[in-house]
Amino acid sequence: MKNSLLLLSGYAGKSATTLLILWGFARLSGAEGAGEFAYAMAVTFPVFILAELGLRNVLQTLRGGPPFRAYLALRIAAVALAVAGIGLAALWIDSFPPAAVLVPLLGLRAADSLLDICHGCLQAAGRIGAVARWMWTNTLLTVVAVAVPLAFELPAEAAIWGSFVASVVVLVPVATWCLRTIDPAPWRANRADVRRILGAGTSLGVSQGLASAMTYLPTIYLAASASAAVVGVFAVTQYVVTFANLFLSSIQQTQLRALRAGLESGGVARLRALSLGVGLRQVGVGLGVALLALLAFPPVLPLVFGEEFTLTRWEFLPIALAVVALSVDYATTAPQLVLNRYRSRVGVAVVGLAAALVLAALTYGDATLLSAGYVVLAGVAARAVAGAVLLRRAL
Length: 395
Known about the structure:
Elements: H1 2-52, H2 55-61, H3 68-92, H4 99-124, H5 128-152, H6 157-182, H7 191-223, H8 228-305, H9 313-338, H10 342-362, H11 369-394
Helix pairs in contact: 1-3, 1-4, 1-5, 1-6, 1-7, 1-8, 2-4, 3-4, 4-6, 5-6, 7-10, 7-11, 8-9, 9-11, 10-11
C-alpha cells in the first residue's frame, strides 16, 4: 500500500502537468485555445503510445528479459520514428494543429517517453520512492513553467516549452543513474534480445495504441463538427478519466511484481487469488472516484477554468460511469500481463475501439458533450467486458 501511495502521488503530479498546461491555455486563450491544445494531443499522443510498445510493462513482467540498455535503445528509435511520422503528416495535412503548438508538444512527448522507460528501470529495481520523487520534481518545475507565461502574459505555447525543459532536466540524471548503476555493462545489439522485446512489446504496444486512439477519438469526433470551445470543455471534462487511468495504473504498477512472484511460487491458483483481491480494490477505487467526481466536478469546473467551462451532472454522468468501467478493465489487465498474454490485450483494445467508433458514427451528425461522453463510456465498457471474458478463460 505504501508503494501504491508513493507511485500514485507521482502519477497524480505528472498527470497534473498536462492539466496545468491545459489550464494555462484556457486562462490565456480561453476555451478555444484549450481546444486547440486538446486537438494537438489527440492527433499526436496515440502515435507515441503505439510506438512505445508498452516497454515499461514488458521491462517489469518479461521473465528472464534482456538488459535495460536494450529497452532504452528501442525506445529511442521508436521516439525518433514517431516524431518523424507526425512531422511528415503535418506537412501534408492542412487540418493539423498549428506548428506553434505542435513543435513544443512533440519535444515534450519525446522527452516524457524516454523518461517513462527510465522510470520503468527504477521500478524494476524496486526504487518506487525514487520514481515518485522524480515525478514530483518534474511537476514542480512544470508549475513554474506555466506560472511564468501567466504572470508575464506570454503566449500560451510558452507553457509547453517550459514543460519540455522540465522533463529534460529530470530525464538526464535519471537516465544517467540507470545506465551507471542498474545496467553499467555495454550492450551490443543482437537479434535475440530485440526479437524477445519486440515479440512481447508489439502486441502490448498495439493494444495500448488502440486504447489511446479510443481515448482521443471523442475529441476528434467533436472537433469535426463542434466549435473549438466545446472541444476545450470536453478535454477538461475527460481528464477525470485520465486521472482515474493514472490512479489505477499506479496500483497496477506496484502490484505487478507481487503478482509475478505469486505465479512463480504458487502457480495459477495463487495468481487467481491475488488477482481477485487486487481487482476488488481497483473496482472500489473506481466507484469512489466516480461518485466524488459526479458530485464535485460540475460545480467546481467553471470556478477553476472560467465561465465558458460549464456542464451539468447529466452531461458528466457517462464520464463518471466510464471511470467505473475503467476500474474493471484494469482489474482484468494485470493477471494477463503477468501470464505474458500480451496478445490478448490487442483483442480487448480492438473491441473497445470498435464500440466507440460505432457509437461515434451513429451520433456523428449531432455531436455534443453528452454524446462524446457516451462514446468514451461505450469504448471503456466494451473493453472491460472483453477483458473479463478472456481473463476467465486464462484463469
